[in-house]
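$ ./design --mode recover --in tokens.txt
reading tokens...
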């Protein structure tokens, strides 16, 4: 880039600057997009768990985007300084920080998806563990855990009282 400035090649300098700014802009848009996907996954998981949504969670997303942009600005400053070196031909710091942000938020999305899916499958696991217990204390602890899980699933709408129930069962998973 310094070569373009010294040679007075304004057209090539403009193309180089615009291409770098384009990469920075796309990187920043990707940061916003991945934060919004995480927000969507978090709201979806909270609804599935029956958790009441409030403004605190929404504010966290805005604060998180602001924090990522602070880091992205530092990356852009590094890229500006790097532009004075002939070998620094792309906004590497911005790209690196954007990829790191996407990885972090992607992990959060997968955690929220997992949070949304857990619940019903644990009932069978707990019932099996209760049947295989060697002592009464462990069985009672697992029964309490199953009861707590039943309450959470009922709150989520995944545990309902059965209308036409068999004589030995009053609940089913639906």
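writing sequence...
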């Amino acid at each position: 880039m310094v070569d373009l400035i010294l040679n007075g090649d304004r057209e090539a300098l403009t193309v180089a600057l615009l291409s770098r700014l384009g990469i920075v802009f796309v990187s920043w848009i990707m940061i916003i997009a991945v934060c919004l996907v995480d927000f969507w996954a978090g709201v979806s998981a909270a609804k599935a768990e029956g958790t009441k949504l409030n403004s605190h969670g929404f504010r966290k997303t805005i604060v998180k985007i602001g924090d990522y942009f602070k880091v992205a600005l530092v990356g852009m400053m590094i890229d500006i300084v790097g532009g004075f070196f002939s070998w620094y031909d792309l906004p590497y710091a911005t790209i690196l920080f954007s990829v790191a942000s996407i990885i972090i938020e992607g992990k959060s999305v997968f955690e929220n998806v997992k949070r949304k899916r857990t619940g019903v499958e644990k009932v069978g696991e707990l019932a099996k563990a209760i049947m295989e217990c060697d002592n009464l204390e462990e069985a009672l602890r697992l029964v309490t855990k199953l009861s707590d899980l039943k309450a959470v699933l009922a709150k989520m709408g995944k545990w309902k009282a059965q209308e036409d129930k068999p004589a030995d069962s009053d609940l089913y998973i639906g």
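exit 0
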